[in-house]
Design brief:
The protein contains five helices and seven strands. It has 145 residues and is of the alpha+beta class. Strand 4 and strand 5 form a beta hairpin. The chain starts with 5 loop residues before the first helix and ends with a helix.
């Protein structure tokens, strides 16, 4: 997703994740959810864009993933419709990393909706912090410089 503005980056999150078949995993010990390309670019940076959410961005502002910190202990507290989300992660892959053993159409729809909720949360946090799209573009520019 190569777009210049922050709004364009966030608005197309679900579409890019679906089209590029991003993988998901959940780190139970860190309570960290990740949805990203299978192999991130070497020059990717993790940029915090809201209270809970980070984007994996390349210097060209290509989004290669998203992660949510404190999924169970924070995000699901103010997005209760996702409190059962952790149950999807049923296959242990590494240490405390869990993946989803079977991706179905229902799971895909669920994550598309989840991406829309992430987008809404990012904007809500920006409004709470009295940040404009210009402010958020600046955050990304500084993080990638």
């Amino acid at each position: 997703m190569e777009k210049e503005g922050f709004i364009d980056l966030v608005d197309q999150l679900s579409t890019v994740a679906t089209l590029n078949k991003w993988i998901t995993f959940y780190d139970k010990s860190a309570d960290f959810f990740v949805w990203k390309k299978d192999r991130l670019s070497k020059d990717v940076s993790l940029v915090k864009v809201s209270h809970d959410t980070y984007l994996y961005l390349t210097p060209k502002r290509t989004v290669e993933g998203v992660c949510v910190e404190y999924l169970r202990n924070n995000f699901t507290k103010h997005n209760v419709e996702y409190k059962e989300m952790i149950k999807f992660f049923d296959k242990k892959s590494d240490d405390d990393y869990y993946t989803i053993s079977k991706i179905t159409d229902k799971t895909r729809c669920y994550f598309d909706k989840f991406a829309e909720t992430l987008k809404a949360d990012i904007y809500k946090d920006a409004l709470t912090d009295k940040k404009t799209a210009y402010d958020l573009n600046s955050v990304i520019s500084v993080a990638l410089s």
